[in-house]
């Protein structure tokens, strides 16, 4: 007979069936029994029901003699195979004989199992026989076999659950007093019912056992709670059970509280979960790292960083070390809040504690850096991840591909796309759509449609987001007619055009300078029942701002507010850009002040726009003040921020500040743009700092960026004067190649 333990687990707590766990809880039964007796006595209820006596059918004299012969034979020849021993008796053997034989050999547990195996080969024994062997297994502390025997019965196909449950409970109760008298047998039965998801029957068994003065062990009750919490519908039931069971003597432990805290968090009741965490100690249960981590994770998803930090500190004061789950939650929140530097610091702290980050943590960081536009830092994390032999999954690849697509580095995105294919990963709609959108934004429409066709060939269906990217790309290329044809194709395929699709076309028309047609499309959109949203208005405002028509932009803002639409930080950034283009920097500063007063948090782009204009005016005093104010508001500078400041300070010959900012941005994973390199190099050359200038020039060349003629001329002269003729000629050839042959039209500005 196959004997094995069958594991049962919750996805969250990993509760597993362990026979020794039931054995260790034997003292709990007597405790529960006392609690139950006290409760019944207090309420004036009658005594608990006694277990019935076992009174099987009596054998005839002939049957008794036959059973004695079998019993004697198997006892005397116990080391021989039973099949050989019992061969002479098979023809006369009846199912009734099984129980009578078991009565004679019950003291030899191994012989019982062997005999039961032999009986099973002839015919499946009746339920009473099975229950007898289960009782003997539990009495012999062989809970694995007991568990398997019960599970085998309940795993049968086409079982009438209601009728079978009634019969099984009756037989188990009937055989209990004479064959085992070990209450663990009902605990094992309860666990099996939970494992096979017969949760209603498990509850019925729990209630029935109370009538006999027995309570199910706390470990099994926890398994019941965990299984209930597997489904969303069962969360409320688990919480109700948690409040009901103590009334009949169940004393919950830390694991029990952890399950319910998890249930409350899944229901979005984070504050209630936090309150339960605080109540645990009052009930004599010490919270563990899982208790705290679950609540921390809940607050992380609410974005409440201060509560998270306070709980983490409280946990550590109690001597509980954060685990991988805790760190992952905190890193997720920091990435979500745009605090990537802090998130990476937490990662390093985690590794210093000896906890190896997993795929999820690295992917969270990669995605966070990419969304912030810091793809260089994302690549460093991606490389570190692979250096630790952690294989990136599709999510990690898709995140970094999206990052490269957003900054227009399609060669790198395409390389990673083919790398994931080589690793046997199958890209999904998100991966393909990111590439399509990237190629569209880069103006490579043919390549975008090629990716679209490949996507269809592999059996993936382009969705509304995919087609919106294509429509947006066509409009930006001025191919509005082709975009309209694509819209008709979308309709033929049954795709419902949404506000995002129309916004893409409006944006494309505005980028192409066709604002009149964009306005007309917005009116057409209203006719089909779609109303312009904040993005629609912001796009039109941006078009008017870039044309210097601030009055029309303000009119659109008023119309937008009259319709109850809330402007976003992007809307205000559009206005800020309009003011700066028009030279109205004082109005820009007033807008920034008004945003802060109204609780509208600016982002790095808001400040960058102002700083750029003050740098152009060579007013680095105000630029520095704006930068300090930005940092004081808790807004992290991005790549553009640093490049603006480095260019500004270099042109103002504040080389110490420029060099310090350059080192700081490199430490954060950002890179200098071509124009920032040029400004910094020229600043050092004017200050006669040739060593620093040469180092930056070589770094620029290694990165494949092209300096301007003035810088090439300067280094040709320097090398000539120093007598480095080979380097001089090399630079001359390079300059001729770039400026007379290549004449690059695009630079990384």
TrEMBL record:
What name has this protein been given in UniProt?
Uncharacterized protein
Source species: Pistacia integerrima
